[in-house]
Amino acid sequence: MAKQSKTSDRVSQPRFELVAEKDIEIPMRDGARLKADVFRPKSTERFPVVINLGSYQKDKLWIPPPDLEEAPNPYMNWEAVNPLWWVPRGYVALRIDGRGSGKSPGRTDPWSPSESRDFFDAIEWAARQSWSNGRVGTNGISYYAMTQWLVASLRPPSLKAMIPWEGAADMYRDFGYHGGIFSFGFATNWWNNHMAHHLLGRPQATATDAFSTPWLWEYMRNNLDGEWWRGRRAIWENIDVPLYSAGNWSGMGLHLRGNTEGYVRAASKHKKLRIHAGTHYHPFYSEEGRTDQLRFFDHWLKGIDTGIMREPPVKLLIRKGGHDNYEWRTEGEWPIRRTRWTKFFLDPGARGHASEVEGALAIEAPRRASSISYSASAMTKAAVASASWTSTALAGNLPRMGVSFESAVLTEDTELTGPVVLVLWVSSTTEDMDVFATIRNIAPSGEDVFERGQQSQPVPVAKGWLRASHRKLDPSLSLPHRPYHAHDDRQWLKADEVVRIDVEIWPTCMVFKKGHRIRLDIQPRDGVGSFPYTHYGADYNTGTNVIHTGGSRASYILLPIVPGK
Length: 565
What we know:
By secondary structure, this protein is of the alpha/beta class. The protein has helices at residues 83-86, 113-127, 143-152, 171-176, 184-195, 207-210, 215-221, 227-230, 256-265, 282-285, 287-302, 386-389, and strands at 18-27, 33-41, 47-54, 92-97, 132-141, 159-165, 177-178, 181-182, 243-248, 271-276, 314-319, 326-331, 340-347, 359-362, 370-375, 403-406, 414-428, 434-442, 451-452, 458-459, 462-467, 499-512, 517-523, 544-549, 556-561.
């Protein structure tokens, strides 16, 4: 992680011993009682509380990797704050087993309205305790960030600040269905391998017990946005507490969209956005990351003037290609105001420099109408559909499919930072069409320059998805640089009917070096570097997809080019 200048000493310093109280019962409004561990300073003073609630078992010890900046200790727990660091600095760390997980009885239902109500009740309970100063903050990664968006939407009176660190906020668009395409790879892996054995903390439980909540079935059954999903996404106009939203450029497919949408759309008057890079957990536990968290909570939960709210509200890690090649930069807004939104038009009449590139990304739109087609089936030579092999979608491990467009060699370093939209005119011989878009950084050698992904896997620059039948936009929420799809009905394609689709490509940041090229892949299945956020696309044994461009149907990608300050 890139270093940044040291902050002042105006933050809480370690001076308290830790007292641990295990298996405390927290009453819920319906009479249920959730089990919790309280880690607090050994003192008669009252302290602010940092709380998380979820299904990852409070008693399950996490052994961190050897390169983590926080050392292993008996209180480390996956994606939660480290009590041995926070408690000496004058905070209570409250860790709660959500209903039906760990030691809490009941039936688990991740990110549901009932779980959010439980979290509300736990926050208000914490504020009333003898060791609490009545000011509660939420903090944590992933699951523990997602629940923050949802409980903050209920406006618990004692919630005074929140740090959702890499947290999806709309379970349909950010997590379950990317562009209307079921995110099969991660959803099934997460539930089967990371959740089922957590329920009630009983490894000997039968399969029937473990799957008493038909979570996967509900996600698959509710394949359009609707009432079921509305209870599983943030209500932005209700979130008015001070907010520190921390995203990860590598989190395309999980979380990043939630953090940028949260910063832009939450009603809070006091909010900050940070976007880092790398793995899912190293930045959170780094000294730099912890210091940012502490400065924010010290300001809002203790009233200490740490100076953090006088700094620019946006802090971005600018990626320059390759692992660990980046530097921090602050900005005054998101998206960046000085962005030059630039259209690169798809031109199949101009071949790329490599044999696998079918066309060019051109600054000028082709005058003549043209088109380029590709197979909708994406079958491998072994006749295996991608629904079976997309779990292998690592760097350089996929057969050719779809079409690619590439820019001219860049004559100077070119920074792309912000959201991206791909506007296509398409048709198909099938009734639907899945579009998987990938932006890649191509070195002069013709090789990809990959980044380190959330799971330490190699990833390209950015990704976006859309199923053509889900192309309907919500005009009240769509922006020129970020389409917002309604996902409330299906508009099937008619054979060879040409329609416009707007593909949302998640925000990104990359400085493409002089001599490099920007490549765009458009494919019918998951492309390079998709693992583990792979999808169950529609399988067609035959069929042809067509991209139209030029003339009155100019297909293009809108890129956020950011000049230097």
